[in-house]
Design a protein that fits this description.
This protein has 386 residues and is an alpha/beta fold. It has 13 helices and twelve strands. The strands form three sheets. The chain has an eight-stranded mixed beta sheet with strand order 3-4-5-2-7-12-9-8, with helices on both faces. Strands 1-6 form a two-stranded parallel ribbon.
């Protein structure tokens, strides 16, 4: 199975694709460019086949059946639009992050049946309506359920995660064409930063106008909803909060996708084997912290939840040249790829492997794990990689 066929975008124009493939900067659109009809009428096909969810209706011919049929059709149409949006987000992500694309191809070369995403992650500014809710509305509209909140006091962050609709565990399909992933959205608590850092962030979000209403569209287009910043302002934020500096230049772009290792069929389903495989192929993993380190601390680590049932690791972020508004072109951190293995809950340990479903495994997220995963875009990790 070729990755190019699996991870292709059906609603991605050649002009946008060209820009995504050719930094030095993210596309920047004025707030006036975000027109409501565009956000709801994207419906391209370009010959790509879709895996849609199946919906059960009444088989008898009656007014109820007609109504059910109409509802089924609407649900399928909504499903197609939603996956088109995710597919465009994924395309931007893969075009800008060669490490993620190479690792997906590498895993696919060994385990070509299905590569499922455990979750998609985004970063936001908690100010002027640009926080978690700006992105969450898309997922809530398409059947996702809000779950627990996580707090990261040292990083001045909070996060919410969202579980996909129960009907989303379809068979077949990889990436965003497969089972819908969880969604993890974090938010910088801007009010807790220094006055100068707050001033910079508020300056750009204010200039964005109503850009926060089109966060999902901006992510799918690979665009900022605010103006490109000055390099001096980027440096100012980076010195205080690397998370804030990342968000200033990457906006709502996918921060990372996560391969669900236990859904693989080969020996790579074990995250230790996957990490070793990635390391042997020349990729370096985030070595920051982690409760359990299975390999040399300079190359990789596995973060394990206190209950021992959630295991996570990640690569170091790629970098890309960014054209700042003062004409300087400097390298900035982009995104990375994560791996997660969810073990079977104790109450289901007696089930046979063929009986085990995703609902039988450890769900949710862990603050300790996520705190270390955030470091994948840190200067310390990027410098070590260089």
């Amino acid at each position: 199975m070729k990755l190019s066929a699996v991870f292709s975008s059906s609603c991605y124009s050649s002009a946008i694709a060209k820009n995504a493939l050719q930094p030095p900067s993210l596309i920047t659109l004025p707030a006036s460019a975000f027109l409501p009809p565009l956000s709801r009428k994207l419906s391209c096909r370009h010959g790509v086949s879709y895996n849609r969810l199946s919906f059960r209706g009444n088989s008898s011919f009656s007014s109820t059946a007609v109504s059910s049929s109409k509802s089924d059709s609407q649900s399928q149409g909504s499903e197609s639009f939603f996956r088109d949006t995710l597919r465009s987000m994924e395309t931007v992500y893969l075009n800008r992050n060669p490490t993620a694309k190479s690792i997906l191809e590498l895993v696919s070369s060994v385990d070509d049946e299905q590569i499922c995403y455990d979750h998609l992650a985004f970063r936001t500014f908690g100010v002027n309506g640009y926080g978690i809710n700006s992105l969450a509305s898309l997922f809530l509209d398409y059947g996702y359920t809000q779950k627990e909140e996580l707090r990261f006091p040292a990083k001045k962050l909070k996060a919410l995660w969202f579980s996909p609709p129960n009907s989303s565990s379809q068979d077949g399909g990889s990436g965003v064409n497969g089972p819908l992933p969880r969604v993890f959205i974090s938010e910088l608590l801007v009010d807790q930063l220094s006055p100068r850092a707050q001033e910079i962030i508020r300056k750009y979000t204010k200039k964005s106008g109503s850009g926060n209403k089109y966060a999902a569209l901006a992510s799918a287009l690979g665009s900022l909803t605010w103006e490109k910043p000055l390099y001096s302002e980027f440096q100012q934020l980076a010195g205080e909060s690397e998370y804030s500096a990342w968000t200033l230049v990457n906006g709502y772009a996918l921060n990372h996708v996560t391969i669900s290792t236990h859904r693989l069929k080969s020996n790579l389903r074990n995250i230790k084997n996957l990490n070793e495989f990635i390391k042997k192929n020349g990729f370096k993993l985030n070595s920051d912290g982690g409760v359990l380190k299975e390999f040399n601390a300079s190359t990789s680590s596995i973060s394990v939840s206190p209950d021992g049932l959630l295991l996570q690791s990640s690569t170091v972020a790629d970098s890309m040249p960014f054209s700042f508004s003062d004409g300087l072109v400097e390298s900035v951190p982009c995104s990375y790829i994560e791996f997660a293995e969810r073990l079977v809950l104790p109450q289901y340990k007696n089930l046979s492997e063929s009986e085990i479903k995703e609902s039988h495994r450890r769900d949710g997220f862990e603050v300790g794990n996520a705190d270390k995963i955030f470091e994948s875009t840190s200067k310390e990790q990027l410098t070590r990689r260089a």
